[in-house]
């Protein structure tokens, strides 16, 4: 199965393929002027790769860039408050954004990913390869 057809099977197939991510982000930029949800999701994935010394500074950057400014609307207020409280109490580990990341993933899975798969943008990409999605 060509990678671009596997993208239609699950969100994780799409997110695990660099070309798929690039096309998804291009679509989101075109449709909504940005893709902070995708960037946040990958930032959370990257956070898990950091060692204990790097965690506080990386957490601070992710918080300031995505969570604090309310840039990602699909993160619930209680989740934002919980993250803020943990940062204030210096309870900063690689799982601090797990709930927020899960909320973002549900949003992508239910809203932006299906819209992408049904878009002319994706369909034309697939047609350029002479294949058709399921």
Automatic annotation (TrEMBL):
GO terms for molecular function: beta-catenin binding; molecular adaptor activity; protein kinase binding; ubiquitin protein ligase binding. Residues 10-126 form the RGS domain. One of its GO terms (biological process) is cell development. GO terms for cellular component: beta-catenin destruction complex; cytoplasm; nucleus; plasma membrane. It is found in: Cytoplasm. Transmembrane segments: none annotated. Gene3D superfamilies: 1.10.196.10, Regulator of G-protein Signalling 4, domain 2 (1.10.167.10). The keyword Cytoplasm applies. Keywords: Cytoplasm. The keyword Thylakoid does not apply. Pfam families: RGS (PF00615). Its main location: cytoplasm. This is RGS domain-containing protein. It comes from Lottia gigantea (Giant owl limpet).
């Amino acid at each position: 199965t060509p990678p671009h057809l596997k993208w239609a099977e699950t969100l994780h197939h799409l997110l695990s393929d660099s070309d798929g991510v690039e096309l998804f982000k291009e679509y989101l930029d075109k449709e909504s002027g940005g893709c902070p949800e995708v960037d946040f999701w990958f930032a959370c994935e990257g956070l898990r790769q950091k060692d204990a010394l790097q965690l506080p500074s990386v957490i601070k950057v992710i918080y300031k860039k995505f969570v604090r400014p309310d840039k990602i609307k699909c993160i619930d207020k209680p989740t934002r408050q919980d993250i803020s409280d943990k940062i204030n109490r210096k309870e900063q580990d690689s799982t601090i954004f797990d709930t927020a990341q899960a909320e973002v993933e549900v949003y992508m899975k239910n809203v932006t990913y299906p819209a992408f798969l049904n878009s002319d943008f994706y369909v034309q990409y697939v047609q350029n390869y002479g294949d058709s999605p399921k």
